[in-house]
Amino acid sequence: MSGVESRLSEDLRARIKAYPGDLTYLDLIRRNRWESLLLMIGLILLAGLIGAVIAGAVVANGGSVEALLPSAALGLAAGLIVAGIGALWSWFGGSSAILRMSGAVPIENSADPELFNVVEEMSIAAGLPMPAVYVIPETALNAFATGRDPKHAAVAITTGLRERLTRDELQGVIAHEMAHVRHLDVRFAMLMATMVGLIVFVCDGLWRIALHSGGRGGRRGGKGGGGAVVFLVVALVLGILAPIVARFIQMAYSRRREYLADAGAVELTRNPRGLASALMKLSEDREPLIEKANRGTAHMFIVNPLSKMRKSGQAINSAFSSHPPIKERVARLMALER
Amino acid sequence: MVMWLVAAALFVVLLVAVVGMYNGLIRKRIDCDNAFSQVDVQLKRRHDLIPNLVETVKGYASHESETLEAVIAARTRAVSLEPKGAEAAAAKGAAESQLTAALGRLFAVVESYPDLKANTNFAQLQEELVSTENKIGFSRQHYNDTVTKYENARQTIPTALVAAMFNFQKREMFTIQNEAEKQAPKVSFS
């Protein structure tokens, strides 16, 4: 397993050195939990800001709360119903739908005893029930986990990845997936998606109200026009920016959960090299796309199944990426192994 | 009157907190027991695999009887011991690590029998045994993780106060028993 070190680039060696020498997986777990909590709070604050602007709109419109109340209540109810149905659907049917959409097929123990053994080893290390094992018949290298709780969990791996990995590497990949299951990441991703969806929905409504009241303000002329104009500008700016910021927070959160799952994988295997070596194989692969993946399911995979230019570490690109750059993930893992 | 109400409210809050902490400690202790029994499940599984392995190896490598008998003897000793009480648990642990060592020697000897290695039945058994060794290791690791959580709760305030009140006992972790086992036997998958 000394192969990992020899494959590290100069850039990566420097990044590894930048981490404190006594770094442990527990430090990484604590840090990522804290950061994902902050991001969750940030999203709630953003939702609060939107609420405040709407309240401001009511006041700017001459305080006619009563006049706006029915339509606001209706809008909110519609938003909650849509979000609620979406959440219920993904709670009960989401994981089997994702397995179906990615073309995963369940396999029996006898079909691949080694894979089953590795999954069972990791579920024992995590103290969780054995998840269902699926294989995706594709040459692309990827794997994902799903399930609303550990009792309904499933792990899936492409045949391409299964064939390319050594046992230690496979163990690292499966441990990463078990860590997602253990951290209830599917549930948190659903929560995030529901909240972001609601924010987008409300902002869309805000835009419409702003345009509507702006037009009316113009007709009315001077009276109360100043406040209405200020509100119009604020609402338009927020209507554009809030969904972008919400999406940005969602993706930053998703990246923290990936780092967290990497650290959680080391907690299970106590062997950072296995996963680091597997990730390097994944990054060297030229066929990153999973044909049946889409933006809704991308965050489930061990590496982003959509990005064609995974190696490019451009800042703008990575700000809206569901996964951190593989280089940085390898650096963090290898920083544990000193 | 107000004083009494405040006192009563404080008492209720305190009671709820104590009950919550007590239940948390109980749950962590049950987790420890469960994790411990998982180790036994894996050890038992290894015992069950060995007779089959010995039979298979015998057919190809009959003049390695010494190594085979060492495995059988170590298994018999490990099976006969019941881990009741601290002393018996230590003896059981020693017997199991002897079994690990005997199996390691067997797999090393087998390297010079290409026919045996090509046997699919043997390959399956080897995979099962390698995995079972891993599972024993991981179930011990999980037990230690679980004990760490229990001990953290038992020794840190405020749960330490509840733990002392209801006499929650210290739990021991698995430790490596002999020097030889610290150098984990490296099994090749070639």
Structure description:
The complex is a heterodimer of chains A (338) and B (190). Chain A has 338 residues and is mainly alpha-helical. Helix content of chain A is 68%, strand content 5%. Chain A has a four-stranded mixed sheet with strand order 1-2-4-3, with helices on both faces. In chain A, a hairpin with a 7-residue loop joins strand 3 and strand 4. In chain A, helix 4 (65-92) runs antiparallel to helix 9 (185-220), helix 8 (167-182) packs across helix 11 (272-284) and helix 11 packs antiparallel against helix 13. The longest helix of chain A is centred in the last third of the chain and has 45 residues, at 225-269. Chain A starts with a helix and ends with a helix. In chain A, 43% of the residues are buried. Residues 217-223 and 309-316 of chain A have low confidence and may be disordered. With 190 residues, chain B is mainly alpha-helical. Chain B is built from seven helices and no strands. Chain B has helices at residues 2-60, 65-80, 85-110, 114-118, 120-155, 159-165, 179-182. In chain B, helix 1 packs antiparallel against helix 2 (65-80) and helix 1 (2-60) packs antiparallel against helix 5. The longest helix of chain B has 59 residues, at 2-60. The N and C termini of chain B lie far apart (81 Å). The model of chain B has no long low-confidence stretch (mean pLDDT 86). Chain A binds chain B through residues 113-114, 117-118, 120-122, 124-127, 166-167, 268, 270, and chain B through 31, 35, 38, 42, 124, 127-128, 131, 134-135, 138-139, 141-142, 145-146, 189.
Compact overview of the structure:
Chain A has 338 residues and is mainly α.
Tell me the β content of chain A. Answer: under 5%
Supply Rg of chain B. Answer: 24 Å
Largest sheet of chain A: 4 strands, mixed
Q: Main sheet of chain A: which strands, in order across?
A: 1-2-4-3
Structural class given helices, strands, pairing of chain A? mainly alpha
Q: Are there runs of chain B of 5+ residues with pLDDT below 50, and where?
A: none
User: What's the order of the H and E elements of chain B?
Assistant: HHHHHHH
Helix content of chain A: 55-70%
Shape of chain B: elongated
